[in-house]
Structure prediction request, 354 residues.
Amino acid sequence: MKKIILTGGGSAGHVTPNLALVPKLKKSGYEILYIGSNNGIEKEIIEKNNIRYKSISTGKLRRYMDIKNFSDPFKVIKGVYEAYKIIKVEKPDVIFSKGGFVSVPVVIGGKLNKIPVIAHESDITPGLANKIAAPYCKKICVTFPESLDYIKSSKGELTGTPIRKELEDGNKLLGKKICGFKNEKRILMIIGGSLGSKLINDLIRNNLKEILLDFNIIHICGKGNLIAKLNNIEGYKQFEYVSEDLPHLMNVSDFFISRAGANVIFELLYLNKPSILIPLSKKASRGDQILNAQSFEKSGYSLVLEEEQLNEKELLKKLKQLKMKEKELINNMKNSEIKSGTDKIVNVIQQYSN
Prediction:
């Protein structure tokens, strides 16, 4: 049996694509080990999925000034040593990195053990971790065609992003039952990222009356963001977070308002769901979501509403446009050559583990 080490963490976005690969990897005969941080979100998610997990020390990689920038490099060095020892004992055939700061020591540890490393970049421009890791990788799988312009030589491979198999199993009837909507209005789902978005939450809730004239609303608002007095409003269903039932709710929904993280927007593309994307501004990010959203708008998959334009008038205007352009957006998504990248990524992994 072949063995693969998966790594990636710091946010759910660095973990869920790895989980999407697991069924296909197991079917292809791989034993799986995950290396992550001691206290990161990846530890909880991976162990809940009954995958063997080993922890290493790691420091966060930052693009801004912080006192921890002086101590964290020593944690990274310690992490490299710990990863090197784990890899030396485990003797994997290949390492697959999804990025995030925890992945850097693992990638370097793999290189020191002469184990081939494959990385995956979700966004158009590589994140800091993948920039550091790139020289140690055999291949870097990318989600967007534009990403190939940012990767040197022949290392880039356009694969798309892995999509969770559970999405295929989403049941519309079950989704409808979970919501309990009593009318036949079209359903609009709001997704503000894994932690929710106060900006989007407030905008939706301040305009509930107008939006509910045309739509039923499923609102995933983030932990701690429920408002009890809104629980009994007909046509409005709020959740802090949805896990097992998310495929059912996504399948029953007709339209989406979402942040522009690569994982979620490619799930919307996979399901052919028309959307309004509201990317994080450069004030709160490195601008990757803006580029993601622009790419989807250019391809005719989504409409885009920048945070700087975000107000009641523009939101209601975009929702009208979304309904008008529904068929056009769906046709463009159906004709897209980029769907789930699971098979393509596993094929690349197999090339370097034989």
Notes: The chain has 14 helices and 13 strands. The first strand starts at residue 2 and ends at 7. The two ends are 11 Å apart (CA to CA). Residues 72-90 form the longest helix (19 residues).
